[in-house]
Amino acid sequence: MVTKTNYNQILIDKVKAETSKTKLWEINNPRVNAICINLLEMVERDKSFTREQYLYLEMIVLASIRVFGRKDVSSELLSELNGLEELSYKNIVTYSKPKKSK
After folding, report:
1. Nearest to residue 63, comparing CAs of 80, 75, 38?
2. Cβ(4)–Cβ(25) under 8 Å?
3. For 30-84, how does the pLDDT look when each residue is reduced to its tens digit (9 = 90+)?
4. Where are the chain's structural domains?
């Protein structure tokens, strides 16, 4: 069984693993880790977000770290973030579009 403490550690480990993949100090530093972890923890605790919405946001944050952590980042690379529906983050998260409310 995954407890809240274990889940938070998993989240921390995911963020740190992504930020540590780059040598760029602007991404791989304690403040970026703290900002991303805090953002995700706050959304995860908020009862107004569904689990699916949280997982989608987590995927966006981790994909953003990956894209902005590249030394060759340019406006063309930012378009990588537009195809998130098709992205399966190492088969950990699969996103399906939320149903539109009428």
Report:
1. 80
2. no
3. 999 999 999 998 988 888 988 899 888 999 899 889 888 888 766 566 566 655 5
4. 4-94
